[in-house]
Design goal:
heterodimer, A: 410 residues, alpha+beta, Heat Shock Protein 90, 2 domains, 5-stranded mixed beta sheet, two-stranded antiparallel ribbon, 10 helices, 7 strands, rod-shaped, B: 151 residues, alpha/beta, Rossmann fold, 5-stranded parallel beta sheet, 5 helices
Chain lengths: 410, 151
């Protein structure tokens, strides 16, 4: 079929070759009567033409004619029909074209000619059949390759469209990120100014009129001032929290041991006069952003110190479970604890489970912890019981997935 | 304190102006304070044009510059000052509500001398203004060309 390829190019060529191939396969895979019938007819036609030539005294045309019939049969109809064609051709040749004519006997002088014809017919049929098999194998291989190429093209198209979708999403994310940034900027700039004025003018009023104000009015003034200042702190905390989500992380090996010891000795300043039993197990080196992980440790340890304030002897334990794929650090205290029912609320922004009079703070610490740990692809959780203390856990993935880590962006 | 520098305060919010002047007054810093309310006016003052065309041609000892200003914003004013041969040595302090990293970085890249975030707490605010006034208008020796006035 190869010779047809030159006729057309590209998809047209493919279509031509495919329809020819289909035709071939249909014939070869056709029912036996059709295939053997074809062999019969092609030999009959060759015989008829050969006899016609002989009639006009044009000798020796029968050899190529029968050959042609065998070749055509072998090519299009396969092994069985080609064998039939060989047998029929040999028989016809013997009967019609070797002396004595019109008998199956072969004269001595034509014996060589007859055997030559038979051998030639067999060899031709075999050769054509073999060629045909090889070619159909090649065609199958080519079709499979073509199908694979097409499938690959289709997949490439899918990947491209997914990529486009992803790029679109990334663009949207970029937009909403910059919107968030400008929002944070406005909050930072515009919300603080009026607050400063509330505080400033209240202070001025207090200074100018405090002698003429009664006790109640002075308390009102004080409340206004404190509330405004508190709002200032909330805004600052919220901005710091939002910056945390946008800041770049620079990761390196971090010794948790050293980090915890540093933070504990820093907290020592605030815990003078308190009886705190620190129990710190050896901690491994992890991989992360040192300053961010420091914020995590500071928040968890100062929480533990804060919520054990009412204990005569506070016990704070820091330890680590070194797992196969991650390490989990925990901070356990014997402080106020909490109801497990509300455990999932602990890590929300400005979520508090205690009254402000009991424990100070505005509820951003654990939200900060969670955000930092999530940015490290880790998890946080908490266990606790009222008046029995609490345990806070954070996990960090271990340092084997280098590629993933370096690909980490905010 | 034999000599006091003139302070140019660029601030659009009248309440901030009042609080700043009160803070400076509280500590008896009798510096001459010129208040302009937007970036354009600040440039008019520095280039002695418009309503300031009659003033003597000298630079203030320090310019206290807010970032968020009408018309020409603080960073633009800073950029113009730093690219002007005559004004580029003038001490400029950014005094703003913004604690944003990008504002801080851009200000320093443009060559600001100091960046101060206005504290919310009034005592801290007064302290900050007082210290700025004392440092830049009294202690600091400005480059020649800026005016020093007798008290």
């Amino acid at each position: 079929m190869g010779r047809f390829y030159g006729l057309a190019k590209g998809p047209a060529r493919m279509a031509v070759s495919r329809s020819l191939a289909r035709w071939n396969l249909e014939l070869q895979g056709g029912r036996p009567p059709i295939r053997y019938g074809f062999a019969l007819i092609s030999v009959a036609v060759a015989l008829a033409v050969g006899l016609a030539f002989q009639y006009y005294d044009f000798r020796d045309a029968e050899l190529p004619l029968f050959d042609f019939a065998i070749v055509v049969t072998a090519w299009f109809m396969g092994a069985g029909p080609s064998l039939l064609a060989v047998v029929l051709s040999t028989a016809c040749f013997d009967y019609f074209f070797t002396e004595p004519f019109y008998s199956f006997e072969v004269s001595r002088q034509d014996l060589a000619y007859f055997f030559l014809f038979t051998a030639w017919a067999v060899v031709t049929a075999w050769f054509v059949g073999a060629r045909r098999r090889i070619e159909s194998d090649l065609r199958h291989t080519r079709d499979r390759l073509q199908a694979e190429v097409e499938q690959r093209k289709r997949r490439e198209g899918e990947i491209r469209s997914l990529n486009n979708e992803l790029a679109k999403r990334a663009g949207e994310l970029q937009t909403s990120n910059s919107e968030l940034e400008s929002f944070a900027y406005s909050v930072s700039h515009d919300l603080r100014a009026p607050l400063r004025h509330v505080v400033g003018y209240s202070e001025l009023l207090q200074k100018h009129a405090s002698s003429s104000l009664d006790e109640k009015s002075r308390r009102y003034m004080q409340t206004i001032l404190e509330s405004a200042k508190r709002m200032g702190h909330l805004i600052d905390d919220l901005l710091a929290f939002s910056r945390l989500g946008r800041a770049e992380t620079t990761k390196s090996p971090v010794s948790l041991d050293r980090l915890v010891n540093e933070v504990v000795s820093e907290l020592g300043q605030d815990t003078k006069g308190r009886d705190i039993a620190w129990k710190i197990s050896p901690l491994p080196v992890c991989y992360g952003d040192r300053s961010m992980l420091r914020v995590v440790i500071v928040n968890l340890l100062s929480n533990a110190v804060k919520f054990t304030g009412m204990r005569a002897q506070a016990e704070i334990e820091v330890g680590c479970v070194d797992g196969e794929t991650e390490l989990e650090v925990f901070v356990r205290d014997n402080g106020a604890g909490f109801e497990m029912e509300y455990a999932n609320k602990l890590f929300g922004v400005f979520q508090r489970l205690h009254l402000p009079e009991e424990f100070e703070g505005n509820g951003i610490g654990l939200a900060t912890v969670r955000r930092i740990i999530h940015r490290h692809r880790g998890k946080v959780r908490a266990e606790g019981e009222v008046d029995q203390g609490a345990t806070f856990y954070f996990s960090l993935p271990k340092a084997q997935d280098t590629a993933e880590r370096t690909a980490d962006t905010p | 304190m034999s000599e006091l520098g003139r302070i140019l305060l660029v601030e659009d919010d009248p309440r901030d102006v009042e609080l700043t002047l009160t803070a400076l007054g509280d500590y008896n810093l009798a510096n001459e304070v010129v208040v302009v309310r937007d970036g354009e006016k600040a440039l008019d003052y520095l280039y002695c044009r418009g309503e300031f065309s009659a003033r003597s041609n000298d630079s203030p000892a320090v310019m206290l510059l807010d970032l968020k200003l009408p018309k020409v914003n603080g960073l633009e004013v800073l950029q113009r000052v730093r690219s002007d041969e005559r004004l580029k040595l003038m001490p400029v302090v950014v005094l703003t509500s913004s604690r944003e990293e990008q504002d801080i970085m851009r200000s320093y890249k443009l060559g600001v001398n100091a960046y101060v975030v206005k504290p919310v707490d009034f005592h801290e605010f007064v302290n900050a203004i007082k210290e700025l006034g004392v440092f830049w208008a009294v202690i600091n020796q400005p480059p020649s060309g800026s005016m020093k006035t007798a008290p």
